[in-house]
Specification:
Blueprint: H1 2-11, E1 18-19, H2 24-37, E2 41-43, E3 59-61, H3 71-80, E4 85-91, H4 94-109, E5 113-120, H5 128-137, E6 141-145, H6 148-160, E7 167-170, H7 175-181, E8 189-192, H8 203-213, H9 223-240, H10 245-254, E9 257-259, E10 262-264, E11 277-282, E12 285-288
Parallel strand pairs: 1-2, 2-3, 4-5, 4-6, 6-7
Antiparallel strand pairs: 8-11, 9-10, 11-12
Length: 306
């Protein structure tokens, strides 16, 4: 279906540039139109490795591979030097299993003892057996990769059953997690593509756009990805000074600038350089905690359990 709509944009609407749909699955089909018609496509929320293994020349994403989303959190733990044992698990979806596999490999590379490496069905409702197992392994960090519908019930049951590690990591730390867990969410860590504390330029432009549209950044956290993708498009048009397809595509491939979420450039295969940065819920707010030069807070570790 996405392919059909993008073909219409090209053949009927005669567009000069294509902006990708939400998600890698839809982008996989839509980008075939860009390649066939030789029209530049700026993909948005698209970071699955398979997108970039096709040798396509007319589509780029600002995001690095989804598999790398947890890398900077693990890097932070390595630099802090306080963690030895990590229990890691995910829901069994394409996105999350890729993330888990890469994060387990990175954790081992950093010298952490990965005491658990498991996947569970995404519709899991009862986590008690997993929690009992984790408690017996005594990890410093419990690393849960999944979407909120998976993370929230796990966290609720973990608290109820007395799982008290030094740190909790949630792969998709969003406002629904705070809304569902309330004060229990305090000090859960994760990663995000943007929070207000990030020290990158043009934050005011993003906040102004949010105000105009009537949405909030934490109500739709993917909006930051869309915004810095528009920044990439704006940069390319200004650099090319034209809507000529080849000039635009050349500008996109060669661009290097700092967006609201950090430096953007593109690799030869079209993938980008942006990966999410570590954050932590502190007193009901998302606080950026790493790297120090762009963060507005510090990592609270270990969790001060009461």
């Amino acid at each position: 279906t996405s392919q059909k709509y993008y073909e219409k944009l090209v053949t009927s609407d005669k567009v000069h540039i294509l902006i990708g749909p939400f998600g890698s699955f839809l982008s996989f089909a839509a980008s075939t139109v860009a390649e066939k018609e030789k029209i530049p496509m700026v993909m948005v929320c698209a970071s699955d490795k398979k997108l970039f293994e096709r040798g396509y020349k007319y589509s780029v994403s600002q995001l690095d591979y989804a598999d790398y989303e947890g890398y900077l959190y693990l890097e932070m733990l390595k630099k802090e030097g306080k963690v030895k044992r990590i229990a890691m698990f995910s829901e069994d979806t394409l996105h999350s299993t890729g993330h888990l596999k890469a994060s387990v490999e990175k954790a081992k590379e950093y010298g952490f003892d990965v005491v658990l490496n498991e996947t569970l069905p995404p519709d899991t409702k009862d986590f008690s057996a997993l929690i009992t197992k984790i408690k017996g392994l005594s990890p410093d960090v419990v690393y849960c990769e999944g979407f909120p519908s998976f993370e929230i019930p796990f966290m609720k049951q973990a608290f109820e059953l007395g799982l008290r590690p030094k740190a909790f990591y949630a792969g998709h730390l969003t406002k629904p997690v705070i809304d569902a867990l309330g004060t229990m969410s305090n000090h859960i860590a994760g990663v995000a593509y943007w929070v207000p504390g990030f020290k990158f330029p043009k934050k005011e432009d993003y906040l102004s756009a949010l105000k105009t549209t009537g949405i909030t950044w934490d109500g739709y956290m993917e909006s930051a990805i869309r915004f810095f993708s528009y920044q990439a498009l704006e940069n390319a048009i200004e650099t090319a000074g034209s809507l000529d397809r080849e000039k635009l595509m050349d500008a996109l491939r060669k661009q290097k600038f700092t967006s609201i979420s950090g430096p953007i450039s593109h690799k030869e295969n079209g993938s980008g350089t942006i990966i999410p940065l570590p954050i932590q819920i502190q007193d009901g707010k998302f606080v950026s905690i790493y790297p120090a030069d762009v963060a507005d807070g510090k990592h609270v570790f270990p969790i001060p359990w009461k």
